[in-house]
Every structure is written in C-alpha cells, then in structure tokens.
Amino acid sequence: MQLSDLPRHADYYIPHRAPMLLLDELVEVKDNGCIAKVTIRPDMPFIEAQGLPSWVAIEIMAQTIAMFGGVQERLKGNKPKLGFLLGSKRFEMAQDYFAVGEELLIEISLQFLNRHQIGIFDCHIQTETGRTVATILVSQPDNVESVLAVVSQAS
Q: Matching Gene3D superfamilies, A to Z (predicted)?
C-alpha cells in the first residue's frame, strides 16, 4: 500500500473533528500499523503555558490507532468507525510536556486482535528530545450503537 495513493490529512481516517482532532497527517501505512504526525500548536486543547502535557499522548496514540482502523475501512469503501480505549498496560513518558512547535511522530503496531475486535497495540512516540513508549489496549466493536446504549443506561 503506497502513501501516494491515500490522502494524508488525518480527518479522512478519524471520526474526530476540531478541536479534538489532535493528529495532522498520515505519514506511512504498514501491514499491521501506521505512522502519524502532529506538530504541537498553541491552540490545541489541553495546552498549558509549558506546552502540551504528556498525558495527552494517550489520546494522540489512540487517535493513531483510530487512523489505522480508518485506513482499513476506507480501503473497503466504508467510513471510519468509532473505537474505545479500554486501558493501558504500560505508559511511560520521558518528559512532562511537549513544547509548542515540537513535531511528534507516532508509530503504532498491532500485536494481537481477537474475534471480538479487541486489539493490543504497541505505540511509540518519537520526539526531538527522546523516545516515549506505551502499550494501549483498544476495542472497536462491530456495533458501536449497542455499546453506547448500554453505557447511557448505566449512567
């Protein structure tokens, strides 16, 4: 699969929209993952005087996983589906904030996918100051509406 055949802008692959769309573009597609890019901007949600708090990296990685799912759906002629972040087995950060203007490259790789569409992804963020590693467990159920109905009944 060649990047030249696919649009690069993130909103083609992810159901998120501004201001919650954090990724800028798709950089590369692999068999079991992809690489995305974001440049930290002063108008991003959650931005503070020191920059973007590193805990936002969880959402950035989750959106990169969503981007990979969106690529798969677009190749089938479908719209991107919603997914859910279920948890993180490990979340390690090398810094507390990402500076405004800093470019992040996010690489995700599918490690496991079960018959219920629950997957384990290995996620790496490469910055100008070092490498950050996290493992995230995500789910993309076949019927999102039924999951949302159960959640709304419980609240």
A: Hotdog Thioesterase
Q: Give the CATH number for residue 143.
A: 3.10.129.10
Strand spans (E) along the chain: 25-30, 33-39, 52-53, 84-91, 97-98, 103-113, 118-126, 131-139
Q: How many domains does the chain have?
A: 1
One-letter amino acid of 68 = F
Domain range for 67? 3-154
Q: Which helix (H) or strand (E) holds 68?
A: helix 57-75
What the block records as the tokens of 90 is 């490990």
CA separation, residue 138 to residues 1, 18, 102, 107, 135 (Å): 24, 22, 27, 15, 10
Residue 135's contacts (CB-CB under 8 Å, 6 or more residues apart) are 88, 89, 90, 91, 111, 120, 121, 122, 123
Task: With a cut of 60, say whether residue 8 has pLDDT above it.
Answer: yes
Q: In 3D, which of 73, 70, 80, 61 has the Cα closest to residue 23?
A: 61
Residue 40 to residues 9, 74, 98, Cα–Cα distance (Å): 16, 27, 7
* Tokens at 122, concatenated: 């290995």
